[in-house]
């Protein structure tokens, strides 16, 4: 079991640092955001499982299996004696593995609970303070002068605009913003983001957790941009983003905490929407690598 534990440890180390660093610095995800997003999810899942698995295998090595280790250790749980073959290092590895798994699971549960509480609060406020946007189902307008747009997931979904945003954009630009927010909801980006938010919250000292959440946030924005392009076209979306800036979006959805889109992300998104050929018809804009 020691060779297997070592192999999983090496995999966990690779997925904890060099692989995420290379992926976050790569240029190709801008052209293939769906592939990059799936890869980030695979890295996070495989990294966590390999880390916990490596500790479990090392700690269970004297018994030959994880089940055997449990059967051997449980009778000695209260008497304080170590079974033959087991040392402090084995017990420490098992304790760390179980503690890490419980910590990650509890943090995910708490993050989901906070997000659900915030979504309910948002839906209540929207119902009280906003008015429906004509000819746009599930879209509400808040009386607020600052141009903002966001979406609220749940059993009842809502796309929320401020009247400052409605006043600042023409009809096609506004349609592009609405299509962008609806794409977030249709593609369930809130579920992806909440998992990475929980990971970051559980390991705030771990620099890759922040890098991962930021990269995933940008990828979901790019995917929502692609959805808006399919519905409305690239030029109205580009104009809306350029006119309003990063401040137009507090995040992919209204929730508690998390990484919000900023000016750096906005520039990456705009780079994809600029025509590769300056003489090209702006209506033919398609996503391209930054």
From TrEMBL:
> Origin organism of this chain?
Agromyces larvae
Q: From which lineage does this chain's organism come?
A: Bacteria, Bacillati, Actinomycetota, Actinomycetes, Micrococcales
| Protein name, per record | M56 family metallopeptidase
**Where does the Peptidase M48 domain start and stop, copy by copy?**
130-197
Co-factor remark: Binds 1 zinc ion per subunit.
Essential cofactor(s): Zn(2+)
Listed transmembrane segments: 6-25, 37-58, 88-113
Which controlled-vocabulary keywords does the entry list? Hydrolase, Membrane, Metal-binding, Metalloprotease, Protease, Transmembrane, Transmembrane helix, Zinc
Highest taxon in the source lineage? Bacteria
Family statement = Belongs to the peptidase M48 family.
What's a Pfam family this protein contains? Peptidase_M48
């Amino acid at each position: 079991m020691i060779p297997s534990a070592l192999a999983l440890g090496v995999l966990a180390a690779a997925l904890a640092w060099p692989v995420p660093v290379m992926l976050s610095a790569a240029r190709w995800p801008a052209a293939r955001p769906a592939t990059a997003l799936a890869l980030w999810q695979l890295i996070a899942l495989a990294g966590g499982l390999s880390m916990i698995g490596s500790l479990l295998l090392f700690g269970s090595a004297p018994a030959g299996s994880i089940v055997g280790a449990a059967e051997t250790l449980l009778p000695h749980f209260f008497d304080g004696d170590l079974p033959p073959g087991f040392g402090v290092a084995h017990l420490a590895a098992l304790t760390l593995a179980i503690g890490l798994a419980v910590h990650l699971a509890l943090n995910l549960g708490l993050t989901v609970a906070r997000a659900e509480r915030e979504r309910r609060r948002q839906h209540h406020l929207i119902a009280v303070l906003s008015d429906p946007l004509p000819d746009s189902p599930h879209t509400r307008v808040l009386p607020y002068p600052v141009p903002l747009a966001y979406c609220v997931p749940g059993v009842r979904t809502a796309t929320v605009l401020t009247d400052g945003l409605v006043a600042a954009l023409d009809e096609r630009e506004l349609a592009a913003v609405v299509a962008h927010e609806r794409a977030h909801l249709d593609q369930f980006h809130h579920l992806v983001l909440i998992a990475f938010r929980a990971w970051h919250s559980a390991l705030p000292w771990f620099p890759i957790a922040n890098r991962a959440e930021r990269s995933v946030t940008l990828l979901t924005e790019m995917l929502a941009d692609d959805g808006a392009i399919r519905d409305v076209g690239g030029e109205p979306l580009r104009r809306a983003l350029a006119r309003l800036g990063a401040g137009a979006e507090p995040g992919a959805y209204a929730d508690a905490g998390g990484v919000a889109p900023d000016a750096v992300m906005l520039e990456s998104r705009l780079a994809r929407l600029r025509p590769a050929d300056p003489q090209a018809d702006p209506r033919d804009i398609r996503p391209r690598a930054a």
